[in-house]
């Protein structure tokens, strides 16, 4: 619809996007809906066509023009119920172009009033239309129709073929229902419904196959042809998924749809995107749990030191275990009252100095049993050094004078001896590891690596 917009509401660090009605397929007069990668905490999207995937727009336009033309050739009348804004203008442009190309003479009418006013606004805000409309605007305004004229109720009973755009689009009241009652009994006539019809409306009843409908306590025999060709302003299931992919929300709420179809789409969204999705009923309160981001100031020097202190070659790990853009920080989180309560992550020594306290050191120790050694301890430590240097490139791996290994802040040494008789000996050798608190994450990865590698290195 001309001038349609999506709304993004931000409160602090949290945001909600409300779509309204949208279509991800470009029209003849407007471009496709678009949204930037705003990553809202909640996306509230319509789901009118939650389980529908439409065929191509070109095929629908071809079938529409073919149906109208065939009805004209039989001398019949075609009723197209539309809402005043959106589909009316698109289909008017489509028929106007077709009439001009085919040199057809049958009249095309649109109901006066709201549709006429809508066309006026399309002419006025030509800059909001698509590139093609703006390009030809210099030669001709596409909304200055030559073949489409205002409709008068007296034309209903006129003989001969004609096409009438009448509101509203669901045949539940107004001029479109009045014209339908007058033309329904003639099998040469046709009604083409281009949009969604709510259950209970005359439009919905005839689309579901009813050939007798009650209107104003009178039964109407529907002999005219009935066709549904979706030119709706609503996105289909593929379009809804496309919008979610574009804006990358953390949660999705489905509204404006049918319960069963919404439930199906909800499951599809959860499976494909792995995000929370809800479809509350009318009047139901939905609670969306969310973890808002907490901004923390970190000095560039601290960042650089943290990133280089325990750099591991992730390419040596299985893809499923590789973290995505992950860096571990060990520091003290401080809130400064002078800076408006902002949080700052500082190094332990800096925090101790600011607070006037003495820092304490916590060291962890563990052992890993070694399999039967076929090589001496010095050879094993040299193999470990070479293996670890390849695994954790960029991290210092040093062989100390006492025979121990120093891997960043983690110390590794061999202890123990062989026991048992000369014929049956049992290895009681073990690796002793010790590390400070700030290297806990790195030490954990290192132990996993050693556990997987020791059998091969000891033989």
Model description:
The protein is an alpha/beta fold and 459 residues long. Helix content is 31%, strand content 22%. It is built from twelve helices and 23 strands. It has helices spanning 57-73, 87-102, 114-124, 131-136, 174-183, 202-207, 237-247, 259-273, 300-309, 348-355, 377-391, 440-458, and strands spanning 7-11, 14-18, 42-46, 77-81, 108-111, 148-151, 162-166, 190-193, 212-215, 218-221, 225-228, 251-255, 276-278, 296-298, 332-336, 342-346, 363-369, 397-399, 405-407, 410-415, 418-420, 425-427, 430-436. The protein has a six-stranded parallel β-sheet with strand order 6-5-7-4-8-11, sandwiched between helices.
Précis, in short:
With 459 residues, this protein is an alpha/beta fold. The protein has helices at 57-73, 87-102, 114-124, 131-136, 174-183, 202-207, 237-247, 259-273, 300-309, 348-355, 377-391, 440-458; strands spanning 7-11, 14-18, 42-46, 77-81, 108-111, 148-151, 162-166, 190-193, 212-215, 218-221, 225-228, 251-255, 276-278, 296-298, 332-336, 342-346, 363-369, 397-399, 405-407, 410-415, 418-420, 425-427, 430-436. The radius of gyration is 36 Å and the shape is elongated.
- Alpha plus pi helix count: 12
Main beta sheet, described? 6 strands, parallel
Radius of gyration: 36 Å
Distance between the termini: 74 Å
Taken from the alpha-carbon principal axes, the silhouette is: elongated
Helix content: 25-40%
Mean pLDDT: 83
Low-pLDDT segments: 310-324, 418-426
Classification by helices and strands: alpha/beta
Strand content: 15-25%
Which strand order do you get reading across the main beta sheet? 6-5-7-4-8-11
Tally of strands: 23
